[in-house]
Amino acid sequence: MIEDTDAHPSSRATAHSAPAAAAAPALILCLAAPALFVFEIAWLGWILAAVALVLAWIVDRRTGVTSFRRGGAPSLLRDLSLIALGLMIVSAVPLAAELHDTAMVRFTLALGGAVVLPYLVSRFAYRDRAIRFPWRAGGRWRAAQWVWLVAVLVLGWLILPFYFITSGAYQNWPVVDSPDLITRLFVGVGAVGIWDELFFICITFVLLRRHLPDWAANALQAIVFVSFLWELGYREWAPAFTIPFALLQGIIFLRTRSLGYIVTVHLLFDAVVFAALVHAHNPGVLDAVFLVP
User: Taking a C-beta distance cutoff of 8 angstroms, is the pair 218, 250 a contact?
Assistant: First the structure.
């Protein structure tokens, strides 16, 4: 489960002993994401990641943390190295939305590796349990959580067709004009949505939060989150809603401690994404559903 001040008071205190020192390496690493995914300058992303890790090593030395000692106090270098590992794996493949077999296998291996490898390194090499996937944590969903699920659908219905069609961003996704392609789009959109929460929240946000205040960790994970979405196809004025969405997902996770809930939120939003893309590529099919023809 995500680190908790009540459950792990000593760990939390150590992690927050020098948030100002940790801020620069964390920010530089997260800025590697726009370099890799927005500007697509691979060498710049690698340099930023390397600089961030060197600075993290210096911070560990100054705070008396042994960077690669198994277990023990949270190490900034260890934690940032896990995020960097995931970023490098994802950046190794083109992220343009494609639906043919090769592309879907490529996506599966890259995105899967970006979650599985940091988890395995953390658990078995670093002997650390920071990365967890608390699917049913947080107890039963409260009334406000159910209301938010409905609100997500309504907001998606209002925003997404207008965004995709008026900006022309739907053309960043392949034409889906057959049952096979529509099925592939449905599977792909949902799978990437689940992955988003596994990597950006359960890995990036959780690891940053060990060293930074919650608001700072959330802002930094949003940089990485939105940069990935940009290369995936959410361009033009998409950051106007992807940035708030990324920040809200972090806040909701802090309050609910539930991966299951934030995945549900994301999948509901992505269900509208899927329908809006089908609508945009097939004029007249869903005109009765959406306000934008």
Answer: yes
